[in-house]
Amino acid sequence: MFRAAVAAADPALLVPRFLPARPKGRTIVIGAGKGSAAMARAFEQAWDGPLEGLVVTRYGHGVPCDRIEIVEAAHPVPDAAGRAAAGRILEKVRGLTADDLVVALISGGGSALLAAPADGLTLEDKQAINRSLLRSGADIGEMNTVRKHLSAVKGGRLAAAAAPARIATLLISDVPGDEPGVIASGPTVPDPTTFADARAILARYGIDGPPAVIAHLERAAEETPKPGDPLFDGHEVHMIATPQRSLEAAAAVARAAGVTPLILSDCIEGEAREVARVLCGIARQAAAYGQPVPAPAAIISGGETTVTVRGQGRGGRNVEFLLGLAVALRGLPGVWAVAGDTDGVDGAEEVAGAFVTPDTLARARALGIDSAASLADNDGHGYFEALGDRLVTGPTLTNVNDFRALLILPR
Predict the structure, then answer these.
(1) What is the pLDDT of residue 137?
(2) pLDDT over 90 at 134, yes or no
(3) Are strands 166-172 and 236-241 parallel, antiparallel or unpaired?
(4) pLDDT computed for residue 315 by the predictor
(5) Could you tell me which residues are beta bridge partners of residue 301?
(6) CA atoms of 164 and 141, how far apart (whole Å)
(7) pLDDT tier at 197 (50, 70, 90 boundaries)?
(8) Do residues 11 and 106 touch, judged by C-beta distance below 8 A?
(9) Tens digit of pLDDT for each residue in 245-262?
(10) Predicted TM-score (pTM) above 0.70
(11) How high is the pLDDT of residue 135?
C-alpha cells in the first residue's frame, strides 16, 4: 500500500499530462521542492520546444537533466546553497515579457529550499525561526504563513518578479486541503495571509526571536500579493498529485488482496501521539465489533501531524505516531501498522517511517527498552532503529505527505 501511494504521485507519469501551450517567446522552468528535480526531468523530456531553467531540491534528491540546471540545498532548515539558488531563480524570471512563459514546478519542501530572506533579514535569522517553528508543534500552514512574510520569493512574490510573463504552476500537494498557497509557501500564487497572521502565530507558540524577525513582522512594510490581484490574471495552476489520489491507490491494493479499505481522511492534523490514540480506538472497535469496518480491514489516512519536541529525542511525526499507537494498542493481537512520509524523510531523518506489529512492545521489553519512556522523550527514531523496524526507502522524488495504514486481521 505504501509503495502504491508513492507510485501514484510519480512526476514521470503526471507532468506530461499538464503541459502548457508553447509561448511566442522564451520558456523558463523554475522550481523548488523534494520532487522538483524529478518534475524537471519529466517536463524537459515531454517539452518539444526550447527551454532553460533552474530548480532547487533537497540534498540527495537531484536527478540528471539536460537543459534544466538542478541544484541541491538543505531541508528542513535552509542553508547558503538554498539562499544562492533562490537568488538565481529570481534573476532568471526578471526582465521577461508578456510573450514569455515561466513554468513553476513546486512540491513540498520548497519553503526551506527557496531561502531568499526579505530585506533586513539574514539567512541565520531564517534558520533560527525555522528551528523554533519545527519544535513548536505549529502545523504546516502556520509555519508557511510565517515563512511567507520573511521572504523575498514566497507568498506570490516570485510571480510579481516574473511579471508580465505568463506563469504555469504545476503542484504536487503535501499539505492538508491541497491549498496552492501553502505548498512550498506559494511563491507563484496569491497569498491570503497577512503580517498580522504571522505575528499571531509566533505569539501563540511563545516564539520571541530573533529580534530582527520580530521587528520585520512588526514593521509590515510590504504585504504579499493577495487573491484578486491582476498580477495573477491568465496564470495557470495545476494540482498534478494529491494525498487523496495516493490514498485511493493504496486502497485499491488492499481491495485486491481481499482486505476492505477504509479511508478516514487525507488531511488529519494534530499532535502525532494524540492522533495515534484516536486511531487506536478505531482499530479496537473494528477488531472487537467489526465497526466501522469488519476484519480483514485496512484503516488508511493521510495528512500531516505535528510533534512538539519536549524530550531529548529527534522527533519525527510518523515514528512518534507509531510509537504512540504501539503504547496505546498494548499488544492487541491481529493489528499491524505502517506510517511513513511519502518523500522518504520523516522530519529531518533519512528514514521514511516504521512498522508496528502485535509484538512490538514485547520485543522492546526484551531489549530493555521502556516504550512509554521513549515516547515521553520523543525518541521514536531511536526506538524503531533498535527494533530493526524502520521503513527506509531513500529519496522517492515526490511528496504527497504522510501515509498511515492499520491492518486488522481476524483473530
Answers:
(1) 86
(2) no
(3) parallel
(4) 87
(5) 265, 404
(6) 29
(7) very high
(8) no
(9) 999 999 999 999 999 999
(10) yes
(11) 85
Amino acid identity for residue 388 in this structure: G
- The angle subtended at Cα 154 by Cα 18 and Cα 353, nearest 5°, is 70
pLDDT tens figures, 350-406: 999 999 999 999 999 999 999 999 999 999 999 999 999 999 999 999 999 999 999
Residue 342 CA to chain centroid, in angstroms?
9
Which distant-in-sequence residues (6+ apart) come within 8 Å of 373 by Cβ?
Answer: none
Alpha-carbon 57 to chain mean position: 13
Strand order, beta sheet including 297-303: 260-268, 297-303, 402-408, 335-341, 353-356, 390-391
Dmax over CA atoms of the chain, in Å, equals 68
User: 207: closest CA among 298, 133, 125?
Assistant: 133
Q: What is the dihedral of CA 355, 277, 273, 365, to 10 degrees?
A: -50
Give one word for 332, left, alpha or beta, with left for phi > 0 and alpha for psi -120 to 50.
beta
What residue spans of 36-181 are helical by DSSP H? 36-46, 80-93, 110-113, 123-136, 140-148, 157-162
Q: Which amino acid is at 242?
A: T
**Rounded to the nearest 5 degrees, what angle is found at the Cα of 5, between the Cα atoms of 351 and 386?**
25
- Alpha-carbon distance of 402 to 140, in angstroms, equals 12
Question: Pairing mode, if any, of strands 260-268 and 353-356?
Answer: unpaired
Q: What is the pLDDT of residue 7?
A: 98
Residue 334 identity (one-letter amino acid): G
Q: At 90, list the grid cell.
A: 529570481
**Integer angstrom CA distances of residue 190 from 156, 182, 184, 218, 337:** 5, 10, 13, 22, 39
Q: What does the pLDDT average to over 161-182?
A: 95
- Computed from CA positions of residues 8, 73, 117, 351, in that sequence, does the dihedral angle turn out positive or negative? positive
d(CA 381, CA 392): 12
C-alpha cell at 377: 522523550
Which single residue is written with the C-alpha cell 526506538? 383
Residue 50 preceded by cis peptide, ω within 30: no
Evaluate if residue 333 carries a pLDDT over 90. Answer: yes
3-state secondary structure of 239: strand
Buried residues in 374-390 as b, exposed as e (16+ CB within 10 A): bbebbbbbbbbbbbebb
